[in-house]
Amino acid sequence: xxxxxxxxxxxxxxxxxxxxxxxxxxxxxxxxxxxxxxxxxxxxxxxxxxxxxxxxxxxxxxxxxxxxxxxxxxxxxxxxxxxxxxxxxxxxxxxxxxxxxxxxxxxxxxxxxxxxxxxxxxxxxxxxxxxxx
Amino acid sequence: xxxxxxxxxxxxxxxxxxxxxxxxxxxxxxxxxxxxxxxxxxxxxxxxxxxxxxxxxxxxxxxxxxxxxxxxxxxxxxxxxxxxxxxxxxxxxxxxxxxxxxxxxxxxxxxxxxxxxxxxxxxxxxxxxxxxxxxxxxxxxxxxxxxxxxxxxxxxxxxxxxxxxxxxxxxxxxxxxxxxxxxxxxxxxxxxxxxxxxxxxxxxxxxxxx
Lengths: 133, 210
Prior knowledge:
The complex is a heterodimer.
Chain A lengths: L4 H4 L6 E2 L5 H11 L3 E4 L9 E4 H9 L10 H4 L6 E3 L4 H11 L3 E6 L2 E7 H14 L2
Parallel strand pairs in A: 1-2, 4-5
Antiparallel strand pairs in A: 2-3, 5-6
Chain B lengths: L1 H5 L3 H30 L6 H22 L8 H27 L2 H33 L4 H27 L6 H34 L2
């Protein structure tokens, strides 16, 4: 696979500010039918974070905490694992396997510009396989 | 299977070559339309109409030859249906090219990157349809090609959803601006549905020959 991650990434990113509540995140996850939300940096020195359904269930719901009262920055994973947009997909797969993750964010400089999921990799593999006669 | 399809006849071989050419022209038209979108050169979209006319001649020739008695009678309707669906994809591509010439620039710029992704996937799908047809003739596994085409179609469906979401936020004062951009999106995204249908027909032909 000589394809670069920028060719298969999804540039539609759902984001939230640091001060948002976990309930805000839950609403967004349900409405947009997504599994993770990018947490924007608070200032120039700060880095991006990510909040997933997994974080909410294990760190809030399971502990009987009120999602309205918990801020997402308290449970978000930081910094996010990201990859340069010009990295080859082969390297991306290794990274996903190493960290056991299903989604990797894509960066250009310091900016996060997209996200690639395992399903995007699978789709690419299926198309490339079918192209071969 | 190849013996059953071709029946060893010259007529059948000629039709198979024509069908391949028909799909290859669809690939060229899709590529040409893609170039127009990437370069923003609206004048160059006329190549789609030229290629559509060329394909129309081939389609008529194929149908006429089938009616002359090529192929076993029970697969003739499916082959004709397959050709008609590919022809419909041509019509949609031509309509999309027509609408693109009149689409309002500032509206198009909102969805430009999404449309570019769609034309790229459309071209891949045309290529996969050709591979699928060749696979049918060469007795290969059509399931994999069919699945890849379905994957592409799903990707376009997702992009269409994003486009609609973006355009819904725009307020329009002119009916025609809205109609043109809406028709453009409709034609552009329908091409993948038709290629998927055509691929399904290939699968039906394969199953009917087992």
